Amino acid sequence: IEPWRVDLLPLAAATQDHLSTYSLMDISLDTFPYAGTTTTCESLIMGVPCLTLAGRGHAHNVGVTLVTAVGLQEDWVASSPQEYVALAVRHATDLPRLAALRQELRPRMLASRLCDAPGFVAGLEQTYADMWETHVSKVGGSMVAQTHVSKVDGPVVQGVPKVGGQSPPIPEARAGGVKMAPCAAAALGTPSGPTAVASAPAQVGTAVHVMARAAVEAASPSTV
C-alpha cells in the first residue's frame, strides 16, 4: 500500500472529537485474530458498517456477535481471509448501499439487544437464580450458605450482614429489579414469599456473593 493512501490520525482526547473521525470512514475493517469490541460498537453507532472475520475462539468472534446483533451477519462476516478481501472490495464499490446503511445503523443498534440494558440485567439475574436453584437442589436445601458470606462492614448473624440492627431480607428474582429467588431466602433462614427490594448495597452484595459462591461449589465442590 502506498504511503499516501494511509492516514495516521493523532489522539482525539475528547469523546466528541474521537467519534467525529468516523465521518471520514465508509467501512471499518475489524482486526483478527483479536477482534475489536468498543471500537466496533462505536463504528456501528456512528453509522459505519464493520467487516469482520469469523474465527475459532471468543476473542476472534466478538465482531461476529456485534454485527450479527444489528443484522449484518449475511454480508459482513467473512469465513476466510480470501472472502474478507472480496467482501471489502465489493462493499467499497457499492456506495449507495453504504449510504443507506449509514442512515440505518444507529436506529438498528439502539433497537438491538446490544442496547437493551434491562433485558441484559434480567437475564443475568435469572442466571444467578438458576445457579442457586441448582446448588440448593444438590445440597438438599440445607443452610450451607451461611458459612460462605464474605466480610462486610457491620455484625454478621447466621451469615447475613445486619443493617440497622436487623438481618436484611433476601429479595426474590424478578426481571428488571434487584430481587433474588425465594430459594435463597429459604436457605438463609429468611421467610419465603414476596420480600422487599433490597435497598442497602450490603444486602445486594451479600446475596449475589452467596449465589456466585454457590455456583462455584456446584461446579467444583471439592475445591471449596
Structural features, described:
This protein is mainly α and 224 residues long. Helix content is 46%, strand content 5%. It has 8 helices and 5 strands; from the N terminus they run H-E-H-E-H-E-H-H-H-E-E-H-H. A 3-stranded parallel sheet has the order 1-2-3. The chain has a two-stranded antiparallel ribbon with strand order 4-5. Helix 6 packs across helix 8. The longest helix has 23 residues, at 117-139.
| E-strand count | 5
How big is the Rg?
24 Å
Tally of separate helices:
8
List the helices and strands in order: HEHEHEHHHEEHH
Largest sheet: 3 strands, parallel
**Rounded average pLDDT:** 73
Give the helix/strand layout.
Elements: H1 15-20, E1 28-29, H2 38-45, E2 50-53, H3 58-69, E3 77-78, H4 81-92, H5 95-111, H6 117-139, E4 156-157, E5 160-161, H7 182-187, H8 201-219
Parallel strand pairs: 1-2, 2-3
Antiparallel strand pairs: 4-5
From the structure above, extract its key features.
disordered C terminus; mainly alpha
Summarize the structure.
This protein has 224 residues and is mostly helical. The protein has eight helices and five strands.
